[in-house]
Amino acid sequence: MRSGALDRHELRAMVGAHVQPVLEEGTIACTPGPVNASSDEFRVRVTGAEGHAAYPHLTRDPVLAMAQVIVAAQQLVSRAADPMVPTVVTFGTVTAGTTPNAVPGEALATGTLRTMSESWREELHVRFRQVIRDTARAYGCTADVEILPGEPILINDHDLALRAGERLRHEGWTVSDELRSCGADDFARYGAVASSLMMFVGVDTVAGLHSPPVPAGRRGGRGGGRGAAGGLPGRLRPVTPRTVRTKDPIADEISPNL
After folding, report:
1. Do 193 and 241 meet the contact criterion of CB atoms below 8 Å apart?
2. CA 54 from centre of chain
3. What is residue 241's predicted lDDT score, i.e. its pLDDT?
4. What is the DSSP letter of 79?
5. Tens of pLDDT along 174-206?
C-alpha cells in the first residue's frame, strides 16, 4: 500500500479467506459490514516499593496492585461499554519478581483492547488509562500505560459480500452471513484503498485458531480458502464503487443512511 502498487494497477476489489474452526467444514461465512474488531496492544508497568515478604507493611506491593488492575479493567466491558458494541479487554502476559520471599519493585503486563466501534475505540483508550492509573494509586503504587495502535476494524463491502455469497451458493457451498468476531486481521487495511471482502472457511477440527492442530491449508473443504476465494474476483464484475461510510461502522450497520 505504501509503495502505491495497488493504485498503479487500478485495483477495484480485494478478496481474502481465513480458516475458521467455529464453522462446519463446507461452510463459508460471507458477512456484509464489520466482521472483525480493531485490536490495539497495551503495556502496563505498575511500580511499587520492594521489600522482604515478611514485612509487607514496609512495601508497596505492585503484584497486588496489578491483580486489582486486571480485575478493574474488566469492568470497562461490563459497565462502561455500550452492551450493543462488542468490546474485549485481554491481559495476555503478567510478570513480576524473581524470588518467592520478596515483594518486587514492579509488575509488567501486556494485552489487547478490541472493539467494533471506532468512536468507542478512542474512548476505551482514555478510560483504560484512567482505570489503570487510579487503581494502582489506590494501592500505593504508580502505573505507566502504553497503547500501541494496531489493526483497524475489518469492514466487508456490502454489495461485494452479497454477490460473493450468491456465487458460492450457486457452486454448492453452504453460506453464512452472520459470523462476526473480535478477531483482527491486517487485511482490514485494504478497505482504505478498495472494496474488500474477507470470507471465513469452515474446517474439520475442534482446535482453536492459531493452534498447532490447525496448520495452514488443512482441509477446508474442496480446496479451502484458496478454492473459495481463488475463482471469485473474475466472476464478481462489475465491482461497485467503494461504499462511503461514517466514522463508526456499527452505526453504518444499524442505519445505512447516517
Report:
1. no
2. 43
3. 45
4. I
5. 999 999 999 999 999 999 888 999 999 998 877
C-alpha cell at 91: 491481559
Residue 97: name the closest of 106, 88, 110, 86 by CA. 106
Q: What is the pLDDT of residue 233?
A: 55
Strands 195-202 and 27-29: what pairing?
A: antiparallel
Q: At what angle do helices 62-75 and 118-138 cross, to 10 degrees?
A: 150
Q: CB under 8 Å to 100, separation ≥6 — which residues? A: 53
In degrees rounded to 5, what are phi and psi of residue 82?
-60, 130
- With b meaning 16 or more CB within 10 Å and e meaning fewer, what string describes 199-222? bbbbbeeeeeeeeeebeeeeebbe
Task: For cell 468490546, name the residue.
Answer: 87
Instruction: Please say if the pLDDT value at position 219 is more than 50.
Output: no
> Count H helices, E strands: the chain?
6, 12
End-to-end CA distance of the chain: 29
